[in-house]
Structures are given as C-alpha cells and as structure tokens.
Design a protein that fits this description.
This protein has six helices and four strands, in the order H-H-H-H-E-E-H-E-E-H. Strand 3 and strand 4 form a beta hairpin.
Length: 205
C-alpha cells in the first residue's frame, strides 16, 4: 500500500474516527489535531493525561518513522508533564492558525506572545532546505509547522478541514473533486445539522 494513501493506516487518533488519512507527512498533523475529543461520540482526549499522551506519542512516532518521506522523523524523549501541557497549548494554536478558532481555551493568554519556531536552514546541491530544529518536543512542533507550510505550497493543506458541526472539531481530509466537504461524517454531523435546521424552521413558522 503506498505511503499516505490507505484508509486504515496506523495513525491512532485519526483512525479511531474511521477517517481517510491525509497524504504523506500531513497525516501526522491531522493525527495530532485529532487527539481531541469529539462532542457526540466522546472518545477520550488523548492528551488529557500524561499516560494517554505518552501512549499516543509512542504510536505516532513509530508511524511517522515508517511513512516519513522527508527524513524528518526521529526518536524523541519521553514526555514530561510540561511537554504535555505545551502540546495541548500548541494544538490550540494550530487549530487557530488553520481553522480560525481554537479547540478549547484561547490560543494565547492576554498579554502573552505566541512562541516562535526557528527551523534549520541548510544549503546543499539541491539548494536551500528547511528542516525542523529545536530540543525535545519543540522539534516535533516545528516539524508540524513545516509540514503545514509544505502542504500549503503544494496546495493540499486547504483540503484538511475541521468539521463544521457546532459540537465537533474532528479534522478530516477532503478528497472530494471540488473540495466541498464540510462534515467529518455526513451521516453523523451532517444529519444532526439538518435536523437542527429543520427544527429551527419549524419553530419560526
């Protein structure tokens, strides 16, 4: 099975929702964002505790290593509680940057600047190259941002979307020809929205 093309690859957070996986390294970004808990099905937030976060990290780093096409994947240290909290905050910042809203708390506290990320620039026969840099899990965060940047340049990042449902933020990769998908699950979230709209119309009449 080609890298990034399978429906049931071992990205733990995304496949628990039965979703198609985003191509290439973008699947890593999708999986990180899908560590959230969805409003109706309510599977656990995989970053809620240090134990669950480490279990997710072990699986996702192994999957990243097996699918990485850029040579960026590497072994990272075990998570600390500070690492876990930093990943939760970064997840909100990434939601804000990609979809215009944070998943839970505001992406940054009033009066506090967002953190900066500095990738490593190298020069080779192929020209200038950007690579993730940073210590520990800061490297992971920088890698996610660079993967998003590459996806933006390739025109595929726009296909990664957060479900339009008011009670769901699950991130899906829209494979429709005209990139018109709005629900991570049409039967679940789409029908729920249609029922809500019908009730609102009936109440207005």
């Amino acid at each position: 099975m080609p890298k990034g093309s399978g429906r049931y690859m071992a990205w733990p957070a995304t496949t628990r929702y039965g979703l198609s996986v985003a191509p290439g390294n973008l699947g890593l970004v999708q999986d990180f964002l899908n560590t959230i808990t969805e409003g109706t099905l309510a599977p656990p937030d995989l970053l809620a505790t240090l134990e669950s976060a480490q279990e997710w990290a072990d699986q996702v780093l192994e999957q990243w290593s097996s699918t990485d096409e850029l040579g960026w994947a590497k072994i990272l240290p075990r998570l600390t509680e500070n690492d876990r909290k930093a990943l939760v905050a970064f997840r909100d910042q990434l939601f804000e940057g990609l979809f215009g809203h944070s998943y839970s708390e505001p992406a940054s506290e009033p009066g506090r600047d967002n953190p900066t990320y500095r990738p490593l620039m190298t020069v080779s026969a192929r020209g200038l190259e950007l690579r993730p840099d940073g210590e520990g899990w800061k490297y992971f965060e920088t890698a996610l941002l660079l993967i998003c940047h590459q996806g933006q340049l390739e025109g595929v990042l726009r296909r990664m979307k957060s479900c339009k449902s008011e009670t769901c933020d699950v991130v899906f990769y829209d494979r429709s020809n005209n990139n018109s998908g709005v629900w991570h699950d049409v039967k679940l979230c789409g029908n729920r929205a249609n029922v809500r709209a019908y009730r609102e119309r009936s109440a207005a009449n």
